[in-house]
Structure formats: C-alpha cells, structure tokens
Amino acid sequence: MNVNFFDKFGGNALFDAFVNEHFHLCEFLYSRGARFPENKQKEFSFYLNCFVNENHFAAIQCLMKCGLNPNLSDFNGENALHVAVMNNHSHLVHYFIEETKISFANDLLVTDYLSNNRKSQSNPHVDILIENKSNEKISQSLFEGSPWPYFLCKDTNENNLKKISEFVQLNPHVNIIEYVDYDLRSIAHLAVVQNQLEIIRFLFQNYGTSQMKQLMSQEDRWGFSPLDEAYRLEHFEIYQFIQQNFLQSENQISKFQNRSWTSLLRKWKKVFLFSSLVISNEVEQIDSLFQRAHFISTETYADYYGRTPMHLAAIHGHFNVVKLLVQYGYHSTPDRFDRYPIDEAKQRNFQEIVQLLQK
C-alpha cells in the first residue's frame, strides 16, 4: 500500500492524520514511510512556528518526529528557531539546536541571542547571595523586571530547591513570588514550565493561600498563566496539584481545556486559511466563508506576530480584501510591534487603502 498516495487536494495519509487531529497515528505512519507533502511544507512550518509561539512542546515534538524540516520557513519567512528566539523560549532554542538539524551558523539573530543568553546564565548572582552569610539586606529593586526568577529556578535538580530555600531563609524581607522577569513570568511560572513540582510545593508551603491562588492565574506577556502552561505542556501532576489545592471551579477547568493541543491546532488552521486567502487576494472565497460563519468579525485571526488578515491585506496592497473586511466590521488591532494595518499601507504608499482605513 502506498502511504504517500496524494489525493486531489494534495494531501496524503500523514497530512490528513495531523490536520484531522489523529495525532496518535502520525508517528506510526511516518515509521511506515509516510512523509509530509512538499506542497504543504509552508503550512506545516507555520503550524510548527505557532506551536513554538504557544510553547507547546508535545506538538513540536510530534512534528519533529514526523520528519518536518525545522529549517524551512513559513509564509512570513520565519522558521521555528527564530520564533523561539523572538519569544525568549530558551529551552526551545536549545532543543532545536541540540536535538534537530537546524542551521543557524550565519544567523545573527540566533547567534546574538545565544551570546547574550550565555552571559546571563553565567551570572553568579544567586550563588553569591546564598554564600554571603552577612545580614545585609538585598535591594528589592534588583528583582524588578530582571532575570531573578530565572536564576532562582533554572535547574531541575534537588540542589536548586535547596538554593531557593536557603535564599528565602537568608532574605526573609524579599517576597520572591512578587517578582517577575522581562516576560512577566514569576518563579512559579518558570517552575511550572520546567515541570518542577517540588518548587511549586515549596512555594505553596511557604506563602499564603490567597497569594498563591492569585499567582497561579497571573498571566505573562503572552497571556498565559502558570496553570495554562501546566495544561498545555501536559505537566498534569502539577496541574492536578494546583487544581486540588486552590482551583476547583469547573469554569476554570474548561478555560484551560480550551488551550489543549486540539483546540490550538483548530485555531491556527483557521488563521492559516484566512491568511493564505488574503495573501492570494481570494476576495470571493473570503466573503463566502464569512457568509457561512466560518469566519466571524469578532475574532482577530492574528498570527504569532499579532498580525491580522487586515494587516496582511494592507501589506500586500489588496484593496478589495481590505474593503471587504471593513464591510464586515473587521476592526484594526495593533500587532506585537504596535503597528496597525494603516501603518503598513502608509509605509508601502498604498494610498487608496490608507484613505479607506482613515474613514
């Protein structure tokens, strides 16, 4: 049987298994010789980049185990390593470099990131503070918007928990759960991401219930809380521990289930479809999908840059698409660089689009 037989839509068994969410079949089909279709590579590269953006390691591993080339770029021209760097997902950066065949030797974005990251990881702040037995108080300003949560939580061994415990004992005036790094992640956030249950237990034992309950729902700059991360990364032991101790509401449970692998893929498939149609200037098909309520104007359908279909239409100068989106009440929102669709149109001198968006 030919596992790489292509249907009239250009798909094959492996493609269909993944996009129809039969993830358990993907690795099996790959082991039997199935490969992702070459004409779908940009689509799968986009999904990989989105899962990197979402920090969903299980989904990333699935695509890697099925032979997806991480060097390939999506329609934005980005590959997975770039997205990991842009989001400061250092564990994913190291995963791609150490576990895959990704190329980066001449990539200044990546080499600069690795150089800066190496300098920050060699920072001896935590060891110095713990070894310093004097009673000098540490300035709390050191912690604000800094890598402190990372330094306190970067290793997964028992000695790490010992260091944190000693640090707390030596500096009782410093409430370590109040501080966040540059990505608005607390020490609890990082402990969840790195699957450090013992650190989570330690924090629960040493800080009040109300503080920890609030901390578990505190979102980082991408809108994810520690509990979100526990569910998305399938750290179910931590997820259940948090849930049993502090979060027993059914509404909260359903909220986090909506961030599952399946729901994320469904979301990004719609984003890819919408973006592809906009780039191809498929006005009639976009209109048809709005009429069928496949697309709704209250959703942004933004990519990992935060760029909406309106951004893409403005970038590519597709006036009729912009006009259609305006008719459907599709509102402009800024991307992650705080740029609006009208900014893109102005930069490219698409005056007709600028005038339409100014109305």
UniProtKB/TrEMBL annotation:
Q: Where are the ANK repeats?
A: 305-329
Pfam families (alphabetical): Ank_2, Ank_4
Which keywords does this Swiss-Prot/TrEMBL entry list? ANK repeat, Repeat
Look up keyword Repeat and say if it applies. yes
Keyword Metal-binding in annotation? no
Q: What is this protein called?
A: Ankyrin repeat protein
* Source organism: Adineta ricciae (Rotifer)
